[in-house]
Specification:
heterodimer, A: alpha+beta, Alpha-Beta Plaits, four-stranded antiparallel sheet, two-stranded antiparallel sheet, 3 helices, B: mainly alpha, 20 helices, elongated
Chain lengths: ~120, ~400
């Protein structure tokens, strides 16, 4: 069964990326984690994301585009990356989620919709 | 000897095997709601077929075959694709359709782990377990959980949909998750019991019933996991509490505190069950919170039966409980236990050490505070605490009891 792991990071966690004293350890932690997922053969796709302030949000209202600077929801915890993995059950997906470097902040685990049945 | 009447045979099978049949069917279909529907239809078919053809040799196997056929029909009507074919194969795994004995595996434990899974809404876990394992319906449980039947029904529907959609596995968890997940199962049963227990007053007989059903669930876990001490601890704890249920109210329906209960009104059969379960657990030498709570209940019971346990020993049990699980309830109870063991000053010191913020809405804290302050002769403060306790009490009999204290 396919699950998307959505990794949420706190401002402190995100700040490590740009702190010379901490960046190396931060990226090493993610490399090891993602590497282990690839090694296990469960990864279907996934990536890390640039920082939330680089995001742009768009809504179409009354035929007009409203484009805004910044992420969709203005919360402290922001999506930092995602992976789609194929594992036997929710419990296995939760095992992987628990190993994420940002597990202290939170990981949402959601089933990916299966393709519609062939007619 | 005459054969059992068909209707009674169907009802007897329903009672005895409902949980096993649902567990077996849903473990293979991964769909509890569909399993319930199919089994319901199978029971319905039995009530038509059995009077006509006679009660089958193995009613369970008959029902299982009929329910599996219905699940299969349901899928055939849905669009067929590989996943469905695979489910059908799994469903037929391992049993011949007309197998004479009801030798299908008992998978109720896996079902309980599914129902108590942390990914499910916490408020749905206990009722879901009661429904799937014991066959209670939402209408019967709603009063006990203080929600409308429609709301509880919705909650259960959502939980079953989540189990299916999220892919919660129908299996017994691996060793590294075992204790934590077994704890989830036991907590859900304890919650179901607590819901029934809060209203032993009998203002709502349904709630008292639920306490008995929770006891049955605890006994089921013990039967399925005979070598684990904590299920025995939970069974002992619930049996101790249930043994005293009738004595909690006097003839006029008024609240009777434990220390003043008439021990002759305790249920001696349940007390024996509780003591033997606790003894069996103790022999395994792996202490746990439910065993400690049961041991504390045992000590209280001994006191009522005229063989008091020393107050110091009770405090030691509470110390162990707080070290293992420092819940608010355990810390408040420990403070009360200190009064006879170390004096009221020590008890008050322990009680005041609990942060005010934590206890703002916790009735037992304010009742304990009123009691201890009164023992210390601090009447004014006791009265204030008592008012607060009364204001936080939902049970009319207990409210009346508290309002009479110190007047």
């Amino acid at each position: 069964m396919d699950y998307m792991l959505m990794f949420y990071e706190s401002p402190e966690e995100r700040a490590q990326r740009e702190d010379p004293a901490k960046a190396e350890a931060y990226f090493a932690g993610w490399m090891a984690y993602v590497g282990a997922m690839y090694e296990s053969g469960c990864v279907k796709s996934g990536a890390g994301l640039e920082l939330p302030h680089t995001g742009t949000t768009l809504r179409v209202a009354g035929g007009k585009r409203q484009v805004q600077d910044g992420p969709f929801a203005d919360t402290k915890e922001q999506l930092g990356g995602f992976f789609v993995i194929d594992v036997p059950s929710l419990d296995t997906a939760l095992e992987w989620a628990a190993r994420a470097p940002c597990a202290g902040t939170g990981v949402e685990v959601r089933p990916v919709m299966p393709p519609p049945p062939r007619g | 000897m005459t054969a059992p009447a068909p209707r009674e045979a169907a009802i007897a099978v329903a009672r005895a095997s409902y949980g096993r049949l649902i567990a077996y069917l849903s473990a293979r279909s991964h769909d509890i709601a569909a399993a319930e529907d199919a089994l319901g239809e199978a029971f319905h078919a039995a009530l038509i077929a059995w009077p006509r053809d006679g009660v089958p040799l193995s009613p369970e196997a008959w029902l299982l075959t009929a329910a599996r056929r219905r699940l299969h029909d349901g899928w055939r009507h849905a669009q067929v694709h590989e996943a469905v074919v695979e489910q059908w194969r799994l469903l037929n795994d391992g049993i011949a359709p007309e197998e004479a004995s009801a030798a299908f595996p008992d998978e109720r434990l896996a079902l309980m782990f599914v129902c108590a899974h942390p990914a499910i809404d916490a408020a749905a876990r206990a009722p879901l377990m009661l429904q799937t394992v014991l066959g209670l319906d939402a209408a019967r449980m709603a009063g006990a959980f203080l929600v409308s039947p429609a709301a509880l029904g919705q909650r259960l529907v959502r939980a079953k949909a989540k189990i299916r959609a999220a892919g919660i596995p129908f299996e017994i968890p691996p060793a590294e998750r075992w204790l934590e997940r077994l704890g989830d199962v036991l907590e859900a049963i304890y919650a179901a019991y607590g819901t029934g227990w809060d209203d032993v007053a009998g203002t709502d007989p349904k709630r008292g019933d639920l306490a008995v059903e929770a006891l049955t669930l605890a006994a089921t876990v013990v039967q399925l996991l005979p070598d684990e001490p904590e299920p025995l601890g939970l069974l002992a704890l619930l049996a101790f509490c249930q043994a005293r249920a009738a004595a909690r109210r006097d003839e006029a329906g008024e609240y009777v505190p434990l220390a003043q209960q008439d021990a002759r009104r305790w249920n001696s059969e349940l007390l024996a069950t509780a003591e033997s379960a606790l003894l069996r657990a103790a022999r395994m030498q792996r202490v746990g919170a439910f065993q400690l709570e049961a041991a504390i209940q045992s000590a209280h019971t001994q006191k009522g039966l005229g063989a008091p346990v020393s107050p110091q020993a009770i405090v030691q049990l509470y110390d162990a409980l707080v070290a293992l699980q420092p819940t608010l309830g355990a810390r408040v109870s420990r403070a009360c236990a200190l009064a006879p063991a170390a004096g009221v000053a020590a008890a008050l010191e322990a009680l005041f050490a609990i942060g005010e913020r934590e206890v703002a809405g916790y009735q037992p804290y304010w009742a304990a505070r009123a009691h201890l302050l009164r023992l210390a002769g601090r009447e004014d403060e006791a009265r204030q605490a008592r008012q607060r306790a009364i204001g936080l009490t939902a049970d009319p009999a207990l409210r009346l009891f508290l309002s009479r204290q110190g007047s």
